[in-house]
């Protein structure tokens, strides 16, 4: 079943068009990756889906409902949650407070404890550091916190913007393993990455973005095997 | 937990983090009151209340005590000085909601102060041709009117960010002052005399609230400050307060957490404005005279300086900053002309040695931290298997 659908979406920053007529679908239960170089429009796409940016034309549908003009904070309640680029954690709040903010929009406070447990199971490190300030944690831990915080709203669709950015290779593998685990628990994941290797290997389907347009699409494995993509994004070929 | 063990041979992530934690711990706190906040928070609830009550009693006794060295006499009447200090403290508390909690830079806060003053003046002064109402009624009325102005200004401008918002608010401050000059009904420089005061006469038949007697005004304002502080404290701990803090820390992140950022920014603006209006009405009553001369940009900057000096985001700091800003030129009359120079220098020094202000904001966040901490604790209690959680976090590095 289609969970998220973008139809002919264009996004402008002032007069500059960042995304041209983009259309793609994310089905329930999938991991979908968007890969591309700097400035290809990956983060713009993410911010448009989460509602921080408004498309200048086109439509976005989520769970059968048009959300093109819906405010970002309402999309969270409907089930779209984002771990933003650069992590966007609240540096002056403790880990626990950050996680608590993640459940801010929820009405069903009674089951929030279950989600907290789920996050602590996925990221035991966060439990150890519950009282530490977000701003004083290492990059990898901040990334864990950003993903954990996004999960606290119990989303249907989790948006991850460059989860591997600035992390040690060892951490990158760990983060991707956890992303797969989150997906297995039933959360659909839309992933934006420069680290094409991992992003393609973990994804059910993937899209390649170039200057605001989708140039290739297919299953993660197909794209991994595609010589043009190998050369452009995987540094081999 | 690795943080409490000795050196690790293999430098894994945990060990690296542990090292960072140890280093962070060893750094001594800079500032004039090292560890004051930590000490305060380790005290029991009862002790905190006891200390607070003593402080409040001393504050109420200040006009009678007239402590030597601290007093502004012989240059300025001490009771009137106290009344003015308390008004500035209230202004700072209100501005702190806007600048400190929600992180919105408001350079035109004096406009709300002015609207409050004019409300009190135009509804009570015999110079005003309009309806006259008892002075005390003008306090809630001033709050309502300034709140309305706050929303009016907030709705179109709060879509702007940072510098743009600062410039628009700066303009708004000027608009109110210029309107007061050019609208005939607001009487420009002539102004309104004999602004009303609360009722009541003493045994000699003299009104209690005289413009020449600061003590009752000080007590009234102090009482209002305490009420506003209690309300602000509750707001801080509520969903609204958490939303403000999140907006201040990262507005985009707050939005994607489900915080209706625009709505809460307007709320911060409206609540801040209403406290500004309230303090303006008190100011008008105490001084007894309102004209367009008092509400210039310099006053706005002075208000902002009070908040920043006290500690942006900390309500107790705001009171301290507000009182100081009023107190210094009154106490040191010889150098009063140089007050902006002095505040400038003081701000630079504070930014160097105590970047968070005299009382940094984290203390005010702690109330929230405590709730979060209790949540973890409750969770750990519920699940016996994770019972060691609280003790391990308690020992862990990076505690408040």
Tags for this model:
heterodimer; A: 237 residues; alpha/beta; Rossmann fold; 6-stranded mixed sheet; 10 helices; 38% helix; globular; B: 400 residues; mainly alpha; ABC transporter involved in vitamin B12 uptake, BtuC; 16 helices; disordered N terminus
Total strands of chain A: 10
Helix fraction bin of chain A: 25-40%
Order of helices and strands of chain A: EEEHEEHEHHHHEHEHEEHH
Query: What is CATH's topology name of chain A?
Result: Rossmann fold
Largest sheet of chain B: none
Widest sheet, order of strands of chain A: 6-7-8-3-9-10
- What is the rounded Rg of chain A? 17 Å
Q: So how many helices of chain B?
A: 16
Strand runs of chain B, count = 0
Number of domains of chain A: 1
Structural class of chain A: alpha/beta
Helix content of chain B: 55-70%
Classified by CATH, the class of chain A is: Alpha Beta
- Tell me the number of helical segments of chain A per DSSP (H or I, 4 or more residues long): 10
- The parts of chain B where pLDDT drops under 50 for at least 5 residues are 1-11, 26-32, 363-368, 384-400
Distance between the termini of chain B: 18 Å
Commentary on this structure:
The complex is a heterodimer of chains A (237) and B (400). Chain A has helices at residues 42-50, 72-78, 95-102, 112-122, 124-128, 139-151, 169-184, 196-202, 220-225, 227-233; strands spanning 2-13, 16-27, 31-36, 57-62, 65-66, 80-83, 157-161, 188-193, 205-210, 213-219. A six-stranded mixed beta sheet of chain A has the order 6-7-8-3-9-10, sandwiched between helices. Chain A has a four-stranded antiparallel beta sheet with strand order 2-1-4-5, covered by helices on one side. Chain A has ten helices and ten strands. Chain A has one domain (2-233): P-loop containing nucleotide triphosphate hydrolases (Rossmann fold). In chain A, 38% of the residues lie in helices and 28% in strands. The model of chain A has no long low-confidence stretch (mean pLDDT 90). The longest helix of chain A is centred in the last third of the chain and has 16 residues, at 169-184. Chain B has helices spanning 13-26, 36-42, 45-65, 78-101, 110-124, 135-157, 162-182, 214-237, 239-249, 251-256, 261-287, 297-310, 315-331, 339-353, 362-382, 389-395. Mean pLDDT of chain B is 81; it is low at 1-11, 26-32, 363-368 and 384-400. By secondary structure, chain B is an all-alpha fold. The longest helix of chain B is centred in the last third of the chain and has 27 residues, at 261-287. Chain B starts with 12 loop residues before the first helix and ends in a 5-residue tail after the last helix. At the A-B interface, helix 2, helix 3, helix 4 and helix 6 of A face helix 1, helix 9, helix 10, helix 15 and helix 16 of B.
